[in-house]
Design goal:
about 200 residues; alpha/beta; Ribosomal Protein L4, Chain: A; 2 domains; 5-stranded mixed beta sheet; 7 helices; about 35% helix; elongated
């Protein structure tokens, strides 16, 4: 893991720098929405048990008429307009917009001197201390490491690091690039990204 190069905005294609930030916002919003478990659910008045019999006579009590003690305004009654599991939180993001969002996220990192390119990310020893030494050498708070293909030894080395996250090329997205303080990309992956732009 030698030859760490800090990428400046001048090293990026012009198309990276012309992306509107709103693309990144929309992608991150859709990504976060897709992570929602959608398990919140309440029972409405028809789903709460009990309440079959009228609680008291319609007339003669001096009170408002009531048909069931499971109405929403009673303690123990159903919930009016509560959440249900049949709601769909997914938001649509076009392929082109996903790409633009990633370009903007990487351009932001380059503008903050937090985008690095290395010839190869590989820890032959498989030891966490070697991976930690590499991460600490960058002097960054936390690092997203993008490798073309993850091998077993490198995976083991990065697995337990709290301030580093190792992913493969096909896992790279705008949300992860924006979420981490800095990004380290293998040269082969970076060249593919800049050629596509």
């Amino acid at each position: 893991m030698s030859n760490v190069t800090t990428i400046k905005t001048t090293d990026l294609p012009q198309s990276f720098l012309e992306v509107h930030p709103h693309n990144l916002y929309l992608y991150c919003k859709a990504y976060a929405a897709g992570l929602r478990a959608n398990t919140a659910q309440t029972k409405n008045r028809s789903a709460v048990s009990g309440g079959g019999k009228k609680p008291f006579a319609q007339k003669g009590g001096g009170r408002a008429r009531q048909g069931s003690i499971r109405a929403p305004h009673f303690v123990g009654g159903g919930v009016a307009f509560g959440p249900s599991t049949n709601r769909n939180y997914d938001l649509k993001v076009n392929k082109k917009q996903k790409k633009l969002a990633l370009y903007h996220a990487l351009a932001e990192k380059a503008a903050n001197d937090a985008l690095f390119v290395v010839d190869s990310v590989s820890v032959e020893s498989g030891k966490t201390k070697d991976a930690l030494a590499f991460v600490n050498g960058l002097n960054q708070r936390d690092v997203l490491v993008v490798k073309e293909m993850i091998d077993d030894k490198t995976f083991l080395a990065f697995r337990n690091l709290q301030n580093a996250y190792l992913i493969e090329e096909n896992e790279l997205n705008a949300y992860l690039a924006a979420a981490y303080h800095s990004v380290v990309i293998e040269k082969a992956v970076f060249d593919k990204l800049t050629k596509e732009a």
